[in-house]
Amino acid sequence: MIKGWVSIVFVMLMIGSMLHVAANQISQRSSLPLGVTLYVGGDGPGNYTSIQGAVDAAAPGDTVFVYDESAPYVESVIINKSISLIGERESTTVLYGAHNYTVLTLTADGVVVRNFTLRDAESVGVSVRSNGDVLSHLTIMHCWRKGIDVSSIPTRFSSTSISDCTISYSQDGIYLKGANDTVVERNTVVSSEYGLAVVQSTRSTVIANVFRSNVCGIGCSLSWNNSFARNYIWNNTEGVYLLNAVKERFVQNTFQGNFRDAWFLRIPFIAFVLKVQAARDGDHYFARSFPVVGTTTWSRNYWEKPRLLPYPVFGVRGILSAILVAEYGLYYGNSVMVDWLPAQTPYTPL
């Protein structure tokens, strides 16, 4: 009887030991990185001399780490697989476009790009043609057409994240076209024609950005149901300009030092014609979803100074009025939207 109990206890101890070893093996596997890291620059053995060479050699899930001691890199890089491209330091890991068309082009979903300075391209700093990409801690300057261009997304659902970037001297600092569900957060865009241009896009969130010293801080055209909150819109010619944009939400933004804080132009007939044209061109999502009419919400924004009364946002509605504006520059406004509860103090950056 005693021998039987001893045998049972021995077997249980053996099983417990085997389970413990198996658990340790599983834990160790889970702590391993999901890909390998390829290095560019520096003096390590086997390091790549070009970013594109490392990208071409990488597999999905890998990381390409770029040392700054070999900067500047003069390349136009195409990333066509889901990898992470990480610079050593944002200010010193410099990638020149050398007046090439685009510095970085992303065509694969789930690409991460972080810690670079991109500059001097004839066209675009970062061109995003895919979904779910993450761009952060980038300095982009003198990319003449667009700093970051998120457009021509086949699915129209980009889900791109753009955060903590500084962009200057572009026609459009950040350009979203047909790029839905995008998050634009904590960026600074200065000295550009448009700080942010949102075209035919919806459900994007624009929060805690600085748009300063641009011709237009935020421009929206044929866009709808986007949220703009806690942005600092400062010293632009036009703070916000809405062209046939509907059902947008501007909440708790700070407007200071702009020639004109906000302005809108609504011509529903033209918006309807463009919906029909979009259907003919195969853009059935826009043709089906864009609402043509709808009211934009303005709430608790700070307008230059403390205001006890509601703040009117003037604009133009209708073809005839639009012709007068275009022909004679008569920005008198025949329509108005209202921020009924303007803020009494500027908002601090988040």
Which blocks of ≥5 consecutive residues have pLDDT under 50? Answer: 1-33
- State the helical fraction: 10-25%
What is the mean predicted local confidence, pLDDT?
87
Beta strands, count: 30
Distance between the termini: 73 Å
The CATH class assignment is Mainly Beta
CATH architecture grouping = 3 Solenoid
Largest sheet: 19 strands, parallel
CATH topology: Pectate Lyase C-like
The helix count comes to 5
Radius of gyration: 26 Å
Number of domains: 1
Secondary structure elements and pairings:
Blueprint: H1 2-31, E1 37-40, H2 51-57, E2 63-66, E3 73-74, E4 77-79, E5 84-87, E6 94-96, E7 102-106, E8 112-121, E9 124-128, E10 134-143, E11 146-150, E12 161-163, E13 166-168, E14 172-177, E15 183-185, E16 188-190, E17 194-199, E18 205-207, E19 210-212, E20 216-221, E21 227-229, E22 232-234, E23 238-243, E24 249-251, E25 254-256, E26 260-266, H3 268-280, H4 284-289, E27 297-299, E28 302-303, E29 311-317, H5 319-328, E30 335-339
Describe this structure in words.
It is a single chain. This protein has 350 residues and is α/β, with parallel strands linked by helices. It has one domain (92-339): Pectate Lyase C-like (3 Solenoid), CATH 2.160.20. Helix content is 19%, strand content 38%. It has five helices and 30 strands. The strands form two sheets. It has a 19-stranded parallel sheet that branches. β1 (37-40), α2 and β2 form a beta-alpha-beta unit. The longest helix is centred in the N-terminal third of the chain and has 30 residues, at 2-31. The protein is globular.
